[in-house]
Amino acid sequence: MIARLIEYKAKCPTCGARFPRRMSFLTTPHVVRRCQHCGASYKAVAWSEYVGDIGLGVLFALPVLLAFFHVISWVAGCFFAALVLVLSFVLWPYGTMFEAVPPVRDEPTTKKSV
């Protein structure tokens, strides 16, 4: 069970190539992307991306709100908010899954006149 939790899930569903962590800032469930290694189309599984986004939002807002209401200092609030961003960058590939989708046909940008 623990091995499944720490499995690197941010990989191409077709060829298994790992996606870099910098994709954590670019991933949205409705955007279809192509694998650089095999050319297959994929997108993030919506529920895994949304659960991570909600969790990140709550964990990021909590220290900021605590600092705003003077429960903790602003220095501590900013430190914990930055810590949440770093942890999300490090843990992103273990929580966001990807699924293969049918290839998207490239539409021409201009129509030809007859």
Describe this structure in words.
- With 114 residues, the chain is mainly alpha-helical.
- Helices cover 43% and strands 8% of the residues.
- The protein has three helices and three strands.
- The protein has helices spanning 2-5, 46-68, 74-95, and strands at residues 33-34, 41-44, 98-100.
- A three-stranded antiparallel beta sheet has the order 1-2-3.
- Strand 1 (33-34) and strand 2 form a beta hairpin.
- Helix 2 runs antiparallel to helix 3.
- The longest helix has 23 residues, at 46-68.
- Mean pLDDT is 84; it is low at 107-114.
Question: What descriptive keywords fit this protein?
Answer:
114 residues, mainly alpha, three-stranded antiparallel β-sheet, 3 helices, disordered C terminus
List the helices and strands and how they pair.
Elements: H1 2-5, E1 33-34, E2 41-44, H2 46-68, H3 74-95, E3 98-100
Helix pairs in contact: 2-3
Number of discrete helical segments: 3
Helix share bin: 40-55%
Shape: elongated
Structural class: mainly alpha
Q: What can be said about this structure in brief?
A:
The chain has three helices and three strands. It has 114 residues and is mainly α.
